[in-house]
Each structure stands twice: as C-alpha cells, then as structure tokens.
Design goal:
The chain has 2 domains: 158 residues, Rossmann fold (3-Layer(aba) Sandwich); 243 residues, Aldolase class I (TIM Barrel, Alpha-Beta Barrel). Helices cover 35% and strands 15% of the residues. It is built from 16 helices and 14 strands. The C terminus is likely disordered. The structure holds iron/sulfur cluster. Iron/sulfur cluster binds next to loops.
Length: 469
Amino acid sequence: MHIALCDTRQGGVFKDFAGGFGVGTFRGRSVRGKVIEHFFNRDIRPSALALGYLAAGLKRLGHTVEYCLDELAPADAHVFLPALMTVPRERTLIREINTRWPQSRVLVLGQVASTIPEAFADLNCQVLAGEPEQLAAKWDDVLSSTERAVQLGTIANLDDLPFPDWSPFPHQRFRVGYDFWKFPTAYVQSSRGCTLSCSYCPYIILENKVRTRSPDSVAEEIRHDYDTYGFRSFKFRDPLFGAHKKHLVEIAEHIGNLPRKIQFSVESRIELLPRETLRILRDVGLTSVTVGIETPNRDTLLKYHRAPIRNDKQSHFVDMCRELGIRVVAGFMIGFPEDTRESIRAVLRYAKRVNPFVANFNVCTPYPGTEFLDDIQGQIDSRDWSRYDVYTPNLKYENLTTEQMVALHQDCFRHYYWRWPWLSANWQYLMPRLHSLLSPLFGPRHRETAAALPVTAMALDVIDQPKVA
Ligand code: SF4
C-alpha cells in the first residue's frame, strides 16, 4: 500500500510536546514581544518522533510512505497524528480526503485520538487509542476491523521499535537553536513515562511508571542518525531523563563511546542532576537541560501534586549549569485558577532571580485525561481546541479576567528578556561560537574546564541521586 503520513505545522505547532497534545509558539503583541517571538520562531523543530517510528515500521511491512506537510496527496491510507490545537485543521483535511479519495482508509492516532475520540466522530475515519507506533504492529488487525474505534495498546518492550526513518521528512532543516549550535537536530528517546504525579501533566495519562530502552540501542540509533541523515544534535524527548540512575550512567557511557562527539539535551528534574552527573553528561556532549520550575509558590505546587524543590536550589542549579557551560531552559507556569496579579508577578520576579537562558511562561492548560481537568471542570472557559497552544488562557479565573491574564502573560515574556542581567548572564548562549573563541580570556569562573572524568569511572557512588518515585 501507499501510505501518507499527514502532518501540519499550522500555528507553529510542535506535536511532540505536552505529552503528544502539542504546543504552539509564543505570539508577541508589542514590538518587544515581537522581537522575542522572532527568536522563539527561528527553529524548525523535528517532526514528531512517532511519525519517524511509523515511517520505519510501515516500510518494514513492505509499504511505501510519503510525508505530506500541510498538503494532501492520493494514497491508499492517510494517517493523522493531531495535536489539540490542530484538531480543526486536521478535521478539514480528513473531510477533504473523504470527498476526494473516498476509498482511502483514514486513521487518526496519538494522544488526542486516545483522549477525545469524539472530536472525529462525524468523519469517515478510524480513531486508534494507545501508542501510535503500535499501528505498524497491528496494521492487519486495524485494516480488517470495521470498528470506528480500535485499541492499539502500548509497546511492551521499547527495544522492539525500529529506529525512526527520517528519509521521507525534511530532516536537513530540523534545528533546535535554544539547545544547540550544531545542526540538524533529531529527536531521540531513551525512556517513556514518569513516576511523579503532577495533576496537570499529560505525560502520565497513559502510565505512571517509566519504561526504558537499552543504552546500546539508544547509542546505536544516534550513530545511525549521525551517519545516515547527518544529524549533529539530539534532543532527548524523555519526560524525565535520568529517572533511573544506572540507566543514566550507562547512556552517558555509551554516548561517550560513540566514534564522533555529538551535542544533546535532556529534560529532567533538578534533584536528578547533581554537579557530578551534570559534569559527566557535559563531558560527553550535554549542552542544555530543560527543567520545570513552574512557580515559587509552595502551596500551589502542593495543591497540584507537584513535588516542590527548595527555591535556593533552583538558583544554585542554574548557576552551576552556567559554570559548566550548560544552558538551562526553565518552564514557569501561570494561570492557575486561583492566580492573582500579585502571584503572577511573583513568578516573574522569581524567574528573574533564577535567570535561566530560556524562561518559558506556560499558561496552565486543562488537558483532556488529566486529574487537573476533573478537578476544575466547572471553570473551563473554552473548549475551542485551536486555543490549546499552552500560551492562551482557557479557564475562568477566580481573580482575573481573560484579558488581564493575556496581558500578564505578555508582561512575563517582555519583562523577563528585556533586561541587562539576562543578557549579560546569557550572551554566551546567544553567540556560542564567539564565546568559545573568547572563553580562554575569561578563565574558569565563566566555564568550568576541569579535566573530563572518564565515563567508565562514573563511579555510581559519586552520583548522589535522590529517589523520585
Ligand atoms: S515531573 Fe510532573 S510534569 Fe514532569 S513529566 Fe513527571 S508528572 Fe509530568
């Protein structure tokens, strides 16, 4: 069969984020906001990892695969992986396929298909719940089924997945500039799931545990991606990289043994990355760490089941990363139902104090399937999915109007970046090549130059890693 993987970047969507619900991009509403928007929008992030896996799995079955980005092509089957904010767009495309190629099988999968299948109920398509990569394993079952809703289930062993096939995608253009300075960039994953239970988190809808891939397989995929597609940087899409200490150590060891040095970034929690761990990862190519700080308000964190971290530790973590030459991308969250003007300004003040390279101010979003949504059902203001881009308020707030929330959100971005302390602390990441030329002049205070620890000596006992489960 000829299979079309139908994708869109409408609204600047990045489908791989927010547990597969996708996120949009910040839109500035003032001149300063537009400048910030420009920097946020320079990247062409990779297509969703699930699409790469699907391309590989379906080709392995003997099918031909075509990637259709914001356009349609005739095919025997059309596969959609919608984000929340692109549901209206993908519904339009499915309707068009139903009209132009009525014999084509239309399959909708992913997190959106799993949690709100009713969004596609009036269209001629099958809605597949579960992990999207399972489609290749269950292809015959799905095609022989006359049910509109099919359960794909989850992948028992992540090592059974083939390496993603990026050849149908415009992979030479993929870049994530806030994490790296070498491109193109690929997504890679060494684990799925999280053991924590933040009530608003979409990553734990499917499971509240962690599944891992073998470090061998992860390193071999990176080597394959480097040689086959020319990728030079790798963004790990694990929701909680390093949840298992031994696994983290082995991944670092295998990356260190690759024939060529790569750049990579991870997303994790601060307590999982003490200095020695950061240094070990930095020495084998870590350039950037994404962490969720959310809010300095401990009561808010506890209310939404987020394990708090001592505030001074977060500042210390950012300083430590800066010394090691590692960027920090920090997520802050505003727009909780009970937020006030003052509580949001407190988040901004705190962000300025911590002063990471990237501060991303997300608006708390009631994702389908989360405990948070169950808790605040009566306070949903909009179920227009096109607004679910993580930068648009969709709640009825107890103390603020939607317009006030929008204005405060814009203020957070504008006031955070237009500051001399931000520029002076982070210019090295804006101009990494210039900085590496000049860094010998600055001495060790600006970049730690300690001799690389041999990865094989990453004595597990030097890594003081607390349990998060
Ligand atoms: S730490 Fe919280 S927000 Fe992050 S992946 Fe785990 S449950 Fe989700």
